[in-house]
Every structure is written in structure tokens, then in C-alpha cells.
């Protein structure tokens, strides 16, 4: 029987649920007051505007969007000019926007936890696959473009 693997959107949904749960269970430490919380919505728009083109570039180039797939092209244009992981960055920004909307410290703590989990579960493996597939070209890309920002 094949081993079932969780994919990044599942990690994102778990992190989002954890934010909402922690905010309701540990509402005590408020970082932002009510009138500032709407600023979190402003972060959601650029996050979506980052994720959609990043996914579209991969599809247009005919390479995989699946984290366990085999890359067929090294994509370094579009959002990939600024960050090596624009989709993961967008998901983290959405979580940050939600944390701002909620305003509680507990919700903010989930964001670095999500980034760490994604790095361990996906980014490291993806980087190894890209290095294996594209060698020096990928090494040069890594030197010029940050993993996150």
C-alpha cells in the first residue's frame, strides 16, 4: 500500500485551524487592538497576488507544482526572481495576515512554526531535487535569490 504524504495546503489548513483554536483558547495576550486588526486583510491581497503567478509560471513551463514531483525546468523568472519559494511565502503571509486580524500573540506564534515545518517537510527535499537536476545553475540561483525573502 502506498504511503500517504501530506501536502503543503494541508499544513496550511492545519496551521490556520491552530491559529483559530489558540486564539479562542488563549485570548489573553493581545498584541493589536481592534482598530489595527483590519491591516491583516491588506496582507492577504499581495499574498494571493504572489501565489497565483508563481503557480502559473510552473504550469506554463510544464514543470511540477507537486512537492514530491520531479522538476523538469529550473524556473527563475516571475516571482522566482525575488524568492525561491513564492508559494510557501504566500501561505506564510496569509497566516501572518490572519494573525494580525486576530490580534493575539498565540496566533502569531503559528507563523514561524509553519515556516519551520514547511522547510523541514518540503523545502529541503525540493532543494536537493533541484540541485541534483540542475547542478551549478541551481547553485548560482541559490546564491542570488533568498529562500524566503
Secondary structure: elements and pairs:
Layout (H helix, E strand, L loop, with lengths): L7 H18 L13 H23 L24 H17 L2 H40 L5
Describe the structure.
The chain has 149 residues and is mainly α. The protein has one domain (8-64, 71-144). 66% of the residues lie in helices and 0% in strands. It contains 4 helices and no strands. The mean pLDDT is 92.
Keywords for this structure?
66% helix, mainly alpha, single chain, elongated, 149 residues
- Global structural class: mainly alpha
Estimate the helix proportion, in percent: 55-70%
Overall shape: elongated
The domain count comes to 1
| Radius of gyration based on Cα positions | 17 Å
- Total strands: the figure is 0
> What's the rounded overall pLDDT mean?
92
How large is the count of helical segments?
4
> Spans with pLDDT under 50 lasting ≥5 residues?
none
**Major pleated sheet:** none
Tell me the β content: under 5%
- Encode the helix/strand succession as letters: HHHH
The termini sit apart by: 39 Å
Short description:
This protein is mainly alpha-helical and 149 residues long. It has helices at residues 8-25, 39-61, 86-102, 105-144.
Amino acid at each position: 500500500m502506498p504511503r500517504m504524504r501530506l501536502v503543503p495546503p494541508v499544513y496550511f489548513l492545519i496551521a490556520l485551524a491552530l491559529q483559530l483554536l489558540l486564539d479562542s483558547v488563549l485570548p489573553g495576550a493581545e498584541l493589536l487592538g481592534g482598530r489595527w486588526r483590519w491591516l491583516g486583510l491588506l496582507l492577504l491581497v499581495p499574498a494571493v497576488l504572489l501565489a497565483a503567478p508563481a503557480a502559473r509560471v510552473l504550469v506554463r513551463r510544464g514543470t511540477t507544482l507537486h512537492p514530491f514531483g520531479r522538476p523538469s525546468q529550473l524556473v527563475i523568472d516571475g516571482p522566482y526572481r525575488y524568492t525561491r519559494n513564492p508559494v510557501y511565502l504566500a501561505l506564510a503571509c496569509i497566516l501572518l495576515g490572519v494573525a494580525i486580524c486576530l490580534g493575539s500573540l498565540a496566533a502569531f506564534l503559528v507563523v514561524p512554526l509553519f515556516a519551520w515545518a514547511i522547510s523541514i517537510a518540503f523545502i529541503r527535499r525540493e532543494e536537493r531535487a533541484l540541485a541534483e537536476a540542475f547542478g551549478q545553475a541551481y547553485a548560482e540561483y541559490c546564491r542570488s535569490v533568498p529562500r524566503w525573502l
